[in-house]
Structure prediction request, 295 residues.
Amino acid sequence: MDRYLQDFIYYLSVEKGLSPNTLDSYGRDLKKYLLYLQQREITSLERTNREEVASFLALQREKGLAPASITRCLAAIRSFYQFLQKEQLIDFNPARELETPRTEKVLPQVLSCSEVELLLEQPQEGKNAGLRDKAMLEILYATGIRVSELVSLNINDVNIKMGFLRCEGKGSKERMIPLGSAAIKSLQDYLKRGRNAMLKNKDEKALFLNQQGKRLTRQGFWKILKKYSKKAGINGEITPHTLRHSFATHLLENGADLRSVQEMLGHADISTTQIYTHLTRQKMREIYNQTHPRA
Prediction:
């Protein structure tokens, strides 16, 4: 069964072009599922049935796994069986007809414009790391890219003269996103003064470097963001996705059309982007209640 899992992950990586994060998530979910089958002394995937899959998902629910995580888990199992069926290793997919759990739509956390400004003021631009951090925060808010996309950027992915950034998102889909003047200035400062000082290997292509002169990791950026949000005194836990959510919401609040925001975020389906319209309506209702004399 472990060999089948390795073949499946390789298939998702090479033929489907899924991101490393998605591959890791699918791998973790399926390892848990295969361990569950082994504990029940089921040594062949041909012997599994609909009830086995349903009981595994029910166990995850009992353990407190969030509905969204259970949905992802079911998707991984369903795709795994579909792959095995395609390879003629099993006759049917026991997860095919299982209903996807209903998940509540939770509105994403969004910073106000003043909170964003406060956060962006925190890095000390007199230091190399401060120049880097300022540029990263400005780019995240200016483009709405994911943190994995941010740390994957190379030097040649940014065209400062044209004011654009090239980004490779989920499924290896490439998109071009405009950069604002503030992001361009911060990036220029970092490239002129910060990156050259941090660079240890002249052949290093990564745009954002750590203290060892190598590519900054997602975990490294999380620590940086946590430090600055605490320093800014912003209530609540801020994640890199908070700036992505804020980017989309602030664009829509100021008149951007949904389709343009979808393209910049790299959403395959516009329904994913539409959650931000709920936030703008909510904001509109708050303004109305605060300002209308007969609200």
User: Anything to note?
Assistant: The chain has 13 helices and three strands.
